[in-house]
Amino acid sequence: MQSPSVTAERAARIAPGKPLASVRRFWDVVFVLTRRLLNVRYRGSRLGVYWSLLNPLLMTIVYASVFGANFAQYYHGSIKEYVVNVFIGLIVLNFFVGATEAALTSVVANGTLLNKLRISFEAFPVAAVASFGVQLAVGATPFLLVLTLGCSGRPEHLLLLPIPLASLALLSAGIGFVIAGLYVHYRDIPYMYEMVAFLIWITSPVFYPISIAPERIQAVLKLNPLYPILQSLREVVLAPVITEPYLLLWALLTGGGVCAVGYALFRMMKPTFMDML
Asked: How many whole angstroms from its chain centre is CA 91?
């Protein structure tokens, strides 16, 4: 079997004669890097990517056991609805934290490869997020499809499901670009981001309903970039009728906007990367 560096080298050396060839080369490299990340992450594991589903399932059981009886009143008195809300929240939060933390170290961790081959720096954060995208697609997404049909009872909602999920990937990529670029220059970033990730976790209405907070605090919580993604995904999965369609647009604009800004900042920082690696 060929080593990942050999396949990455071949992907990186596709003749860049035309713009389409350059785009193809980029995505070939992303594909190789994504496969390598998944192979390393789950080498020797029997469940593989399904660990990404098992973790939120187990944590949902814990939260339901501790808070279910008290918070069910905010979900039409239904513990079942509370459980589904928590499960969706954990899927979103776990993806975001996992993907951004993987992207953070992606450029520095591949410094040796970058010194040997001409590979686009952007490929590494993108591959980090893409590896978690594969986990989501294989592990949790089939579960979300079943929940959407069972809870909302509206098959057409399946067509809306990709919107919050794509927004989540775009948001994660945007944040990933920024922190990956900063980490090349400042090696204290992982410690700082650990605190930021905790702040995002605690301000995301994952295991608690946002309605329990005072109105002025709710306004602050809604500034969390995960909020529109989380709430729009819950609406798609649970609501028979989408009562807040603007959340889908808000989620997509948030994800796309953060991704665009993050990519622009990454490109501003990358001319000095090789000096730091």
From this structure: 9
Read off the pLDDT band of 7 (50, 70, 90): low
The residue extents of the domains of the chain are: 4-276
CA dist., res. 136 & res. 134, Å (int): 5
Q: Give 68's pLDDT tier (boundaries 50, 70, 90).
A: very high
pLDDT digits (tens, 9 = 90+) for 256-276: 999 999 999 999 999 999 888
In single-letter form, the type of residue at position 243 comes to: T
Of 147, 119, 94, the closest CA to residue 36 belongs to 119
SS3 202: helix
pTM of the predicted structure, to 2 decimals: 0.90
Q: How far apart are CA 70 and CA 56, in angstroms?
A: 20
**Radius of gyration, CA atoms only, the chain:** 20
180, two tokens: 């990956």
Does the structure show a pLDDT above 60 at 75?
Answer: yes
Taking CA atoms, 210 is separated from 74, 137, 147, 153, in Å, by 9, 28, 22, 25
Residue with tokens 């098992």: 54
